[in-house]
């Protein structure tokens, strides 16, 4: 049991290996490989030889030449077409052609489980989201609400009131699960969490405050969502939790329907999220197919402790602290190797995490000493601790505050 669990964890945490090499070579090796690949192609042209030449050019840093070499292979089928798109994406990425990089990486991932490429795509999507957020805010006065798709929906992190550092990040984790569950319906166009995070990070520069019932219509318009789900999570001294969500109509600039409310406890928070999701489908006028309903009913993890770590990762990622986010997502995977959402997010932030660790992307710049007005106002992180309790899934957890990362928690977990 322990051996199989360890192997599963290793497989998930090491999933960034296994794809075609995309790293740059030293100049001498690179030029030699390009010359050899060109001689082979000139002597006997073929798609395989053309692909090898394009790969050599990418690894030599000859991105413009590589894209010209690979162009005629991009619509091909099978492994040659997939690899041509991957190498073209890498070259486009280096050249700043973000849409082409996105297309090529996505095509590769459609047929290959490749953590390294998923990390590259995560970085590309984040850059796209940042650019879209800046553009939306810059052109806010000219945004036409009539252009918002009727079935488009965004979800903002829930405001956390009361509680301690353990529950402070739950507003992010619950919003993330709601995004996933609402995305199960083919009738809805749900704004992904990267675009949500990017917009909230941009809005903090304008000191526009928290996302509440008053600001939700504006945030929805900037997201490109006709409706925005926002709400609050209120924790009483006795440990009872009230989760309430509202739906705002960005086009009308008003709230629609009645609040959707769940009275729950920390132990039952994952069950309550499912109830919220189904109630929101009803409020949004969506009738789920049996297959969609079954997909929504699936719990993302058996372990509350894994979800708490995941929520901390979601909060850190929203704040732009990718190193901390990666560490928390990895912790969630260690607790529950079957927590696929945590594994996916861990891979998606791994490149940005590595860049922050190397100093090429400054975590300090992304996270000033005083947390930003809009995002951190959503989920204050008062100091405190949570006593021992029994987790669903038989993992014992004790959470305490950790001084190195404001609002973070230390989770020693015994997994049977």
Would you spell out the secondary-structure blueprint of this structure?
Layout: H1 2-13, H2 27-43, H3 47-59, H4 63-70, H5 78-95, H6 98-111, H7 115-138, E1 152-155, E2 159-161, H8 170-182, E3 189-190, H9 193-203, H10 216-223, E4 227-235, E5 240-249, E6 254-265, H11 269-283, H12 290-297, H13 304-318, H14 322-335, H15 340-358, H16 363-366, H17 373-378, E7 386-390, E8 396-401, E9 409-410, E10 413-414
Parallel strand pairs: 1-3, 1-4, 2-4
Antiparallel strand pairs: 4-5, 5-6, 7-8, 8-9, 8-10
Describe the structure.
The protein has 416 residues and is α/β, with parallel strands linked by helices. The chain has 2 domains: 92 residues; 269 residues, TolB, N-terminal domain (Rossmann fold), CATH 3.40.50.10070. The strands form 2 sheets. Strands 1, 2, 3, 4, 5 and 6 form a 6-stranded mixed β-sheet that branches. Strand 8 and strand 9 form a beta hairpin.
């Amino acid at each position: 049991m322990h051996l199989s669990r360890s192997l599963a964890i290793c497989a998930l945490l090491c999933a960034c290996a296994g794809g075609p090499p995309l790293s740059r070579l030293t100049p001498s090796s690179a030029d030699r490989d390009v010359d050899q690949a060109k001689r082979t192609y000139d002597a006997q042209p073929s798609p395989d030889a053309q692909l090898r030449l394009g790969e050599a050019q990418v690894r030599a840093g000859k991105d413009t030449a590589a894209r010209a070499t690979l162009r005629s292979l991009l619509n091909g089928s099978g492994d040659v077409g997939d690899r041509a798109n991957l190498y073209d994406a890498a070259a486009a990425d280096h050249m700043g052609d973000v849409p082409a990089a996105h297309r090529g990486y996505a095509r590769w991932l459609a047929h290959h489980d490749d953590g390294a490429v998923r990390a590259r795509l995560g970085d590309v999507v984040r850059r796209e989201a940042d650019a879209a957020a800046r553009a939306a805010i810059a052109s806010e006065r000219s945004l036409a609400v009539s252009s918002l798709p009727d079935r488009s929906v965004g979800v903002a992190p829930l405001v956390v009131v009361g509680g301690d550092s353990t529950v402070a990040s739950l507003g992010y984790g619950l919003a993330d699960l709601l995004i996933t569950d609402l995305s199960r319906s083919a009738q809805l166009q749900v704004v992904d969490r990267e675009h949500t995070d990017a917009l909230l990070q941009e809005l903090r520069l304008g000191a526009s405050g928290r996302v509440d019932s008053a600001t939700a219509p504006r945030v929805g318009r900037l997201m490109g969502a006709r409706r925005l789900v926002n709400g609050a999570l209120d924790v009483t001294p006795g440990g009872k939790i009230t989760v309430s969500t509202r739906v705002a109509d960005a086009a009308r600039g008003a709230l629609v329907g009645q609040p959707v409310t769940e009275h729950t406890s920390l132990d039952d928070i994952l069950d309550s999220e499912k109830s919220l999701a189904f109630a929101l489908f009803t409020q949004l006028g969506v009738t789920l197919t049996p297959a969609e309903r079954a997909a929504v009913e699936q719990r993302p993890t058996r372990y509350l402790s894994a979800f708490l770590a995941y929520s901390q990762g979601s909060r850190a990622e929203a704040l732009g602290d990718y190193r901390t986010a990666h560490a928390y997502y990895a912790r969630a995977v260690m607790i529950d190797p079957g927590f696929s959402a945590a594994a996916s997010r861990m891979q998606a932030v791994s490149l940005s995490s590595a860049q922050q660790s190397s100093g090429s992307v400054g975590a300090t710049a992304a996270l000033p000493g005083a947390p930003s007005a809009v995002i951190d106002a959503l989920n204050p992180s008062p100091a405190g601790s949570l006593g021992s309790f029994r987790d669903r899934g038989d993992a014992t957890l004790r959470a305490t505050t950790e001084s190195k990362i404001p609002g973070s928690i230390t989770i020693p977990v015994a997994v049977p």
